[in-house]
Amino acid sequence: MDWTRALTAAEAEYAERHAGSRAAMARMAAWMPGGDTRSTTWFHPFPVVMDHADGAEMTDVDGNVLLDFLGNYTALVHGHRPPFILDAIRDALERDVLFGAPMPEQGELARRIVERLASAERVRFTNSGTEAGMVAARIARHFTGRERLAVAEHSYHGSYEPLVWEAAARTGTATFPVNDVAGAQRALDGAGPLAAVFLEPVLSSGGVITADDGFLAFLRDYTRESGSLLVFDEVMTFRLGYGGRQEATGVAPDLTMLGKIIGGGMPVGAVAGRADVLAVTDPSRPGSLEHSGTFNGHRLTMVAGAASLDALDGPAVERLNRLGGRLRDGLCAVAAASRVPVSVTSCGSLLNLHAAPGVTTPAQADEAARSDLARYIHLALIDRGVFIAHRGELCISTAMTEETADRAVAAVADALAEAERLEGLA
Ligand SMILES: Cc1ncc(COP(=O)(O)O)c(C=O)c1O
């Protein structure tokens, strides 16, 4: 089944609805390669160009209104322009936002992270999740005196090449399979002494595949016994529990990478973890690791992040995860009733709609995400006013209600019914 008729029809409707986006991308291509500045936001035939947004709704330059189930790849946990974050930003602007000196607000956001994340005693801020990975790797190397890193197959830790699993053969980074204790043990044993093992407790870009508790416990024991550090990447998964995903797993990493929601929509990253490990960055100590950044701890980021976390209290996290469950149940029911082969994986407020049946591994998710059916679903949902990641990932924001989730389910049902009709399956 090649889905050509469905994809052609969805693409034609998409092109008709987005003439302004097409023109804007063509214009911007004169100054930026491909007209874009972010590989993940580009998709064929051209991406939607956004104009403004509020709550759960975005409006593109053509005036189409889209429900935002992407949330800038899960960063916008409160949706767009939440008033409590706008207020915090306005107050900060009144007092100025950037100095070549520390600010009390940096401690205020660090305190909130330490209070929530059981494994964190200290925090260092960066400007992105990618940089958090760079700094975590440098800290681990400095602390252990070892060089080599390990990452999971199909993981995503940003664009720092030593943590990009597809580049492992070139960088010398070891890779290991997720949820396969024997395979991972073989891979890690064969890699020699490691500075750190990195893992997302739910592989997010890898298809929202949850690392199971037994696998996490194995990695915890393995790293402890072999003298390397365990680094959890909670850039996407911190939203899953008040204390991050690690709260539910009971496994405490040595370091945790953070980003996205801790910046309240501003650029952010952080490394949090054991005081003795983070101490290698303590500038008052002789021989400390140099970790700087002109914009580290920017006041806008600090105050927006604090407001974001304050609004994401225990009940808010529970509500998000409950809405995620409602969306998952709705999508699973649609998948079960459709002749189009789709399946759903999820963990709380993070979900992935896969263009293949029975997806349970990151490799299957990756293959499904590259298919024409995945492209059809993505464009057909935009045509129906629902914006998701082109690889099928969705997330919930606190700006959403049960009705928002139900509208996404209805759009998926309609898109799949249309594919059945166009491909003669109905
Ligand atoms: C799990 C994970 N780690 C790291 C990153 C990189 O963060 P940033 O895009 O802020 O560099 C991302 C971004 O999507 C991510 O999902």
Secondary-structure blueprint of this entry?
Blueprint: H1 4-17, H2 19-28, E1 50-54, E2 57-60, E3 65-68, H3 71-74, H4 83-95, H5 104-116, E4 122-126, H6 129-144, E5 149-152, H7 168-171, E6 174-176, H8 181-191, E7 196-199, E8 202-203, E9 209-210, H9 213-226, E10 229-233, H10 246-249, E11 255-259, E12 269-273, H11 275-278, H12 299-311, H13 314-337, E13 343-347, E14 350-354, H14 362-369, H15 372-383, E15 386-387, E16 393-395, H16 402-422
Parallel strand pairs: 3-15, 5-6, 5-7, 7-10, 10-11
Antiparallel strand pairs: 1-2, 2-3, 4-12, 8-9, 11-12, 13-14, 14-16
The chain binds pyridoxal-5'-phosphate.
The site of pyridoxal-5'-phosphate has 15 residues, from helix 6.
Please tell me about this protein's structure.
The mean pLDDT is 98. The protein has a 7-stranded mixed sheet, sandwiched between helices. It has a 4-stranded mixed sheet with strand order 1-2-3-15. A 3-stranded antiparallel sheet has the order 13-14-16, with helices on both faces. The protein has 426 residues and is α/β, with parallel strands linked by helices. The radius of gyration is 22 Å and the shape is globular. It is built from 16 helices and 16 strands. The chain folds into 2 domains: 4-77 and 313-422, Aspartate Aminotransferase, domain 1 (Alpha-Beta Complex), CATH 3.90.1150.10; 83-311, Type I PLP-dependent aspartate aminotransferase-like (Major domain) (Aspartate Aminotransferase, domain 2), CATH 3.40.640.10. Pyridoxal-5'-phosphate (PLP) is lined by residues 73, 128-130, 156-158, 200, 204-205, 233, 235-236, 259, 269.
